[in-house]
Amino acid sequence: MLTDAQVESWLVEDLGHHDVTNQVPGETTGRLVAKEAGVVAGLDAAERVFDYLDIGFETLVVDGERVDGGDSVFRVEGPAREILRGERVAVNVVGHASGVATRTRQAVDAAREVSDTVRIACTRKTTPGLRGIEKRAVVAGGGDTHRLDLSHMVMVKDNHVAEMGLEGAVDHFRERVSFTTKVEVEVERPDDAPRAAEAGADVVLLDNLPPEAVERGVEALPEGVLAEASGGITLADVPAYASTGVDVISMGSLTHSAPALDFSFRTGGV
Q: Which keywords does the record carry (predicted)?
């Protein structure tokens, strides 16, 4: 949930010290219009911005809904000055979030061409301060949030293994968390996948491996241990990884490289 302080910081960042262009008298209406097809997200953040400015807000679609160019997404009504003050912030956040949702939906659709069960997930490679918005956008696109932060799951990475050994690292962290907390172990060779499972991993992350190596790692895992593929996976790579038998494909590009969806904000009933 966005706080007043966050919204105010966005508005102050955009307004600067002084702006004469929003000194417009009277009341008006406005609407956000999609300029291209995509999946909408970020509407709750846009509503929060306009609520902060005491502007009436009406959603015309919902997060996760596909729109075409020319479709209206939300409508606002109130003092023209305040609407113009919040316009760019709202357009930016919806455009960014919708870009994430659209890229996620593309990845999910690509995976479904090959597998009905594999999940598309994002990572922690999110924009500072925008993780909640970006993670919700991934969900709107049909993806999975993965862990929201470091506290939600133990992930044993290469540096942990280098310091404590694979088995030692798993034991070390397992002793320090609740039995309800899952432990994921990152491996960089398919032969290490069963070793990680034997050490007690609930999830094995096959990192930076080509699809054929991921498939070998998946085949070596015992039943009940989830397999995740990650590491520079692009939209074009999704079908190949979805065919390996992994349970999860995680993609940092969903949040750090998705192009914004293009929108136009129009006032005065246009």
A: Glycosyltransferase, Pyridine nucleotide biosynthesis, Transferase
